[in-house]
Each structure stands twice: as structure tokens, then as C-alpha cells.
């Protein structure tokens, strides 16, 4: 077993360390963010002083948005397989713009693809448009979370159109946002994946080369060359989610016309007043309202209802209007009992919504 080193989670430092492990000259590493609290979580999950499991090139720490952070072991082979399969799906290698932190898997894989393509990535500066104008590669790619896409559609539309493909991941892409991007002439490709799958491994519902998907009573299972090797120093947890080569995700899905459609997380169904409510379905309905810019729906413990359905909404409509809007398409009992109006949704550095912070405001 080899040792693990910690490197600063800056683009330059991660790119240098990554180049070394990909060509075999470097040592395994874990990128560390500058925020002290986040850095401490990485140190605990990565455990740099403990012997490192064989075959690991990089240890990434999950965001911990809904649970305990874990160290995810990614091999050199998995990183390269993801990069090669991504380029094959997009039409060939190209130059990448990095608009996200490289200590998360989305940012790390942009750097991996850049190394594989032999193209120096462009780092996002203060202006997305100005950063896009720095790109010189024959094919131009980037990746971002839905919130970034929504923002840039308002402020940097021409720059978005200049990319051959834009991978959208980190969270589910709302249908209205996908439609808006398509109408604007932006090639935005929703990707499904996570740290354990080496970033996105299913693009627009279709698995990348080398990846297989299956369903087990609605649970999404993934198998393939991009999968992680296990969790750092957590053999029991690894054995629980990696079975016979299949990774058992926490997501529910269905196959529609040969494409995977992710419905939500296993725990997205709550019981409120004796009624099963699918939170992601309520959230999707709210996002169809023309006055709602963004929304997240969560279940909150409640003495009367068992679980209270709470909608956190960026937009103008009030509680009664939104309850009626939900009830037009879904059972009335699914309508949120509480609506919290926000100027913006709180975000983690990974680009995901900070659910714990939202829950703290209503408990």
C-alpha cells in the first residue's frame, strides 16, 4: 500500500498532481479546499496518515450535503476511462473551460479530459464571456451545474452558444431549463453520475461506452469502467454498495424508450399525514410555474403531520397560489404546507443546494 499526499485544491496544483498520477510518475493525492472547515473534512475522510488502498490515484471527498462525508477512491484507469468515453460521446477531444472547483469530481474530470486531449484548460475568471474568448481549441467544451446554466443564459448567451457541448451535472436539470437552453441554441447535455461513478456516466439518458445501467425494484444500478474502487477505510460500506461489480446508487429511476430517467432519491418519498408524497415530483411541478425561478422541496419533521412538505422558492408566487398550482396536476395532499420565499437558494461549493442549511431555517 502507498501513502497519500494532500495538495491544495487550486486548479494549477490539482492539474500538476493529476498529470503525475495519470502518466505514472506521480503519487496518489487528495485535493484540499482552502476553507478551513471543508479542509478538515477532507483530511478526516482521506486519512492521509493511514496506508492507502491499492490501485487508488485520487481520493475525493463527497460534499456531505445530506450525510457524512466519505473518501471516494478513484483509480487511474477509472479516471482515464471516463475522459475517453466522454470525448467519444461528444465527438472527439477538445479544449475545456473549468468553471467549477477541481476538488469536486466534475472539476477534476475537466482537468483529466484536458490532460488526455493534450489541451491546456482555460480557468474561469470574473467573466464567463471573456473566459470563453480565451479558448483556442478546435472543439470547445465546458461543464456546469444547472444554476450556472440558468445564470449564463441571462448574462452570457453568445458565449454559451460558442461551445460545441456543455455538460450539465451536479443536480437534476429542470425540464423548463432544458427547453430554454434548446430554444436559445445552446447545446446543453444533462449528465447523470456522481463521485463514485467518476463524474457523469449517463448522458441524456444513454450510458457512456463501457457503462451499463440496470434497475433493482426502481433503484438505479451502475456497472462499468469508470466506477470507484471503494470508500477510504470503509470496507463494510463499500461491500454494501458494490455488489457483483454493480454500484447500488441511492437514486430511483425508470427506463423510458431505452433511456434512463432519474425520478429522485430513494429517500425522496415521505409520509405526510398518512400520504406518500414524492418530493421531487412536487419540486418539478413548482418549477413549471412561470413565476418560479428556482425551487427545492424537502420534508421536515412535524408533530401533526409526521413530515411537513416545505417548498423553498425563488420567485413571486405566494403559498396559496403555489398550492393551487401543484393541486392542478398532483393530489391536493401533495401540495406544500409551507412555502419559504428566498432571494436565492444557498449553495455548496460543489454547486449543489445546501439542504442542511435550508432545513435549519424551518426546524
From TrEMBL:
* Domain AMP-dependent synthetase/ligase intervals: 42-206
Protein origin, superkingdom: Bacteria
**Which InterPro entries does the record associate with it?**
AMP-bd_C, AMP-bd_C_sf, AMP-binding_CS, AMP-dep_synth/lig_dom, ANL_N_sf, ATP-dep_AMP-bd_enzyme
Ranges for domain AMP-binding enzyme C-terminal: 283-352
From the UniProt record, which GO molecular function terms apply? acid-thiol ligase activity
Q: Name one Pfam family in it.
A: AMP-binding_C
Where are the coiled-coil regions?
none
Q: What is this protein called?
A: AMP-dependent synthetase
Species of provenance = Kribbella capetownensis
